């Protein structure tokens, strides 16, 4: 996977060099493929004994990075077009890796916690998992509002603390909504948390997801609306998508093509 990201990253960097146009989000040559590659390389050096605490480390790293952004460093990163050497032109993308790596650490620690709960052979494991997700939602929401008002609003360009907490908030919220059909449909034959769309057909799942995404893009300009409206759209989107597959699983409909 690292080599795949490296190849795509190099191709993207060469294209940017030939066109003399960089990616406004990541710098002149740096791009999302190189960021993902760097995060994966960093992940190799995480010792096993730190994984249960990695979500705390992730929040700590993101907070320290936010303190750095409170200085003139953020202005320096955003002015990459004014520089003419490789590091300065790509510093904004290179330092974005800190924010993305923070997301990875937090997700790794929380995922490890859910995995442990799911394999403890307890009757109330679903309830505990839902409670854990709700707790993380509240934590991310508090961090988001605190960072939003104490520091700066969400800034994907520098991947600041508000942006990291917003991404995590949406991720955990999506996870929570994905579990709701299992609670809403009585006597569901299997648990969507463990079976998911893979029990039916990934092709149909992603086809429907893209169709719903296209419909939303046609009907709404989400960027012109506030967070509350965007969250409501996400709720309806996920509920409809997962309800369809929960019903397919419940009635043991086999729509797999391989």
- Structural domains: how many: 2
Task: List the total number of helices.
Answer: 8
Strand tally: 0
Major sheet summary line: none
Question: What is the percentage of strand-forming residues?
Answer: under 5%
Mean pLDDT: 76
Elements, N to C (H/E): HHHHHHHH
What gap, in angstroms, lies between the N and C termini?
A: 24 Å
Name the shape in a single word: globular
Architecture overview:
This protein is mainly alpha-helical and 258 residues long. The chain has two domains: 2-182, no CATH class; 185-258, no CATH class. It is built from eight helices and no strands. The chain has helices at residues 2-19, 32-44, 54-78, 86-118, 125-150, 161-184, 202-219, 227-250. Helix 1 runs antiparallel to helix 2 and helix 5 packs antiparallel against helix 6. The longest helix has 33 residues, at 86-118. Residues 186-200 have low confidence and may be disordered.
What's the layout of helices and strands?
Blueprint: H1 2-19, H2 32-44, H3 54-78, H4 86-118, H5 125-150, H6 161-184, H7 202-219, H8 227-250
Helix pairs in contact: 1-2, 2-4, 3-4, 4-6, 5-6, 6-8, 7-8
Concise account of the structure shown:
The protein has eight helices and no strands. It has 258 residues and is an all-alpha fold. The longest helix is centred in the middle third of the chain and has 33 residues.
């Amino acid at each position: 996977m690292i080599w795949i990201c490296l190849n795509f990253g190099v191709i993207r960097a060469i294209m940017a060099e030939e066109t003399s146009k960089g990616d406004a989000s990541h710098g002149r040559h740096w791009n999302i493929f190189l960021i993902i590659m760097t995060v994966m390389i960093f992940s190799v050096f995480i010792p096993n004994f730190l994984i249960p605490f990695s979500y705390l480390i992730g929040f700590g790293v993101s907070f320290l990075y936010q303190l750095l952004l409170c200085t003139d460093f953020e202005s320096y990163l955003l002015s990459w077009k004014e520089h003419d050497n490789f590091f300065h032109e790509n510093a904004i993308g290179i330092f974005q890796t800190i924010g993305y790596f923070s997301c990875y650490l937090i997700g790794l620690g929380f995922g490890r916690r859910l995995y442990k709960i799911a394999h403890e052979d307890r009757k109330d494991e679903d309830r505990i998992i839902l409670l854990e997700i709700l707790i993380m939602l509240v934590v991310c929401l508090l961090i988001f509002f605190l960072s939003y008002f104490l520091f700066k609003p969400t800034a994907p360009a520098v991947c600041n603390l508000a942006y990291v907490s917003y991404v995590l908030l949406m991720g955990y919220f999506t996870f929570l909504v994905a579990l709701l059909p299992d609670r809403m449909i009585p006597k569901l034959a299997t648990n969507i948390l463990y079976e998911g769309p893979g029990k039916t057909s990934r092709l149909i799942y992603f086809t429907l997801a893209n169709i719903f995404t296209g419909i939303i893009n046609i009907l709404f300009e989400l960027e012109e609306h506030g967070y509350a409206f965007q969250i409501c759209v996400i709720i309806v989107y996920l509920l409809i998508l997962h309800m369809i597959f929960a019903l397919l699983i419940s009635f043991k409909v086999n729509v797999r093509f391989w």
